[in-house]
Specification:
99 residues, alpha+beta, 2 domains, three-stranded antiparallel β-sheet, 3 strands, 15% strand
């Protein structure tokens, strides 16, 4: 029986030398990293999608801002109308007024 075992890691593919008696890793030989190829078509497609998403979000924020202005205008008109209908409402008492 051998004293050491050579095993290939199923996750990263590196080669491990393991002592059979103790189970300790004696040596680790990493695999050379694979060269990554650049796919320009894929990169161009990603950039196009990002641009579309950016434009969509911008248009969404513009629409939200327009709606916000309309809502605030309606609230202002409603408050103004309420004050005009009840002009003699007493002011609420503050703690300072009670002294």
């Amino acid at each position: 029986m051998k004293d050491v075992l050579t095993v290939r890691c199923p996750d990263c593919g590196s080669e491990l030398t393991v002592d059979v008696a103790t189970g300790a890793v004696l040596e680790h030989k990493p695999v050379a990293p694979r060269a990554r190829t650049v796919d320009l078509d894929h990169s161009q497609e990603l950039l196009r999608r990002q641009e579309e998403e950016r434009d969509r979000r911008f248009q969404s924020s513009v629409e939200a801002q327009k709606q916000r202005d309309d809502i605030l205008g309606k609230k202002f008109e409603q408050s103004l109308r309420r004050v005009r209908d009840n002009p003699n409402t007493p002011r609420p008492l503050r703690d300072v007024d009670l002294d």
